[in-house]
Every structure is written in C-alpha cells, then in structure tokens.
C-alpha cells in the first residue's frame, strides 16, 4: 500500500508541477510562449508520462475525482479512497510549494487577478475579459470530469488495448483543458485546485468548494455511466 501512495504522491506532484508550471513560466513569454495550447498539452503530457511510469503501481489516479469515479465504477476499493486522496493532496501541495519558491525567486509571485498562480475561478473577468457564472463553471467542470472518467474506464477496460490507455487518457485531459481553460482555468481535479488556492487565499479559497463538488460529482456519474451502461458483460 505504501508504494501505491508514493506513486500517487509523485504522479500528482508531476501533474501540478508540469501543468501549472507551464502556465506560470511558459504560457505568457512574448513571441515564444506556449499559450493555451501548450498548457493544455503540458497537463495531458504529465498524466500520460506518469500513467506509464507509475500507473502499474497505483492505477495512476492522481486526482480525487478519478479515485471516486473508479470506486463508483467498481474498479477501486472504498477502503483505499481516503489514503489515496491524502497522498494526492500532499503531492499537489508539495508541487505548488516548489512552484512558489521558484516563482518567488524572480519576485514574480502574485495573488492579484483571476487565475493568479494558476488558480481556478468563476464569476471573475478572465480570458478575453469574459466572466462565466457559477452555474456555467459548475456544468463545465461536471461534464468534463464525467467524460474523463468514461474515457479512463473505457481505455483501461480489460477488453480494450491497454498499451494505449495512457495515450488516450493524456489526450483526453489535453482536450479538456482546450475546452475549459477559458472558462474556469480548468480543474477537473480537486487536488490541483486546492494546492494552488492555498498559496493565493482570498477568493481562490472561497471558490474552492466548486472545484471539489463539481469534479467529484462528475467523476461519480461518469463512473456509474460506464459501469451500468457501457461496460461489456464479462460473462458475454
């Protein structure tokens, strides 16, 4: 069990460090910055690489909503849920701490504005000065997490070609970010949201409830949909 928790710690650390780090350091570089597409790819690549690196040890969740969805879908034991979530949170917070130290080394850490320190947000003027309502943000996070679970469960089904599961999952997370970075700065992962909000505080912390509730519910629904409506009968 300890190895599984270490795998979840390192996988979630890499997701936050690579995904949020790309947004903080590389997205806005004049002329050569990676932009929205680059950040979306970075998040997808973090999951893709860690699925192959440690997925065989822990299952490669790196996300409390994924753990809940897999539990509802019958792929993960309930007794391991809380330890997994704790390991994911610790990994995410450790990564955010490293990002803070690096960013602060250049005097560039800021708590100002929507999405400061790669936090998630709603009802605030963000990209193109658009402000998405709490309902719009909730629906986006709910739907995208539900589909993420459907892809995860389908790609890792025993009837699927498991060698390509990491690629499908990584590309799905990339697509999710392409859709929702302009809406909420993309969560679909309560650990990722919590780690950044803890360093910013204020509005980021007060809005954190949505980035727990919507992904958790979406993950649970996605897991249930796959189990009840899509999963092939093992006796067939």
UniProtKB/TrEMBL annotation:
Membrane topology listed for this record: Multi-pass membrane protein
Presence of the UniProt keyword Coiled coil in the record: no
Top-rank taxon: Bacteria
Main subcellular location: membrane
Positions of transmembrane segments: 7-27, 33-54, 81-103, 132-152, 164-183, 209-230
Keywords: Cell inner membrane, Cell membrane, Membrane, Repeat, Transmembrane, Transmembrane helix, Transport
A GO cellular component annotation in the UniProt record: membrane
Family the entry assigns: Belongs to the MIP/aquaporin (TC 1.A.8) family.
Annotated NCBIfam families: MIP, PRK05420.1
Name of the protein described by the UniProt record: Aquaporin Z
Origin species: Rhizosphaericola mali
């Amino acid at each position: 069990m300890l190895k599984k928790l270490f795998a979840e710690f390192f996988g979630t650390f890499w997701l936050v460090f690579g995904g949020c780090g790309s947004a903080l350091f590389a997205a806005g570089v004049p002329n050569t910055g990676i932009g929205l597409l680059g950040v979306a790819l970075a998040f997808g690549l973090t999951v893709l690489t860690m699925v192959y690196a440690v997925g065989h040890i822990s299952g490669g969740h790196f996300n409390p909503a994924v753990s809940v969805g897999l539990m509802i879908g019958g792929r993960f034991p309930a007794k391991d849920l809380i330890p997994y979530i704790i390991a994911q949170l610790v990994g995410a917070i450790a990564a955010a701490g490293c990002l803070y130290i690096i960013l602060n080394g250049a005097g560039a850490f800021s708590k100002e504005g929507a999405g400061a320190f790669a936090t998630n947000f709603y009802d605030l003027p963000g990209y193109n000065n658009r402000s998405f309502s709490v309902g719009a943000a909730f629906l986006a996070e709910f739907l995208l997490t539900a589909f993420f679970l459907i892809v995860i469960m389908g790609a890792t089904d025993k009837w699927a070609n498991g060698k390509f599961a990491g690629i499908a999952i990584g590309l799905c997370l990339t697509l999710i970010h392409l859709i929702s970075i302009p809406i909420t700065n993309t969560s679909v992962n309560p650990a990722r949201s919590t780690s950044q909000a803890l360093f910013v505080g204020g509005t980021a912390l007060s809005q954190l409830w949505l980035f727990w509730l919507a992904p958790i519910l979406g993950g649970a629904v996605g897991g249930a949909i796959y189990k009840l409506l899509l999963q092939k009968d093992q006796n067939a």
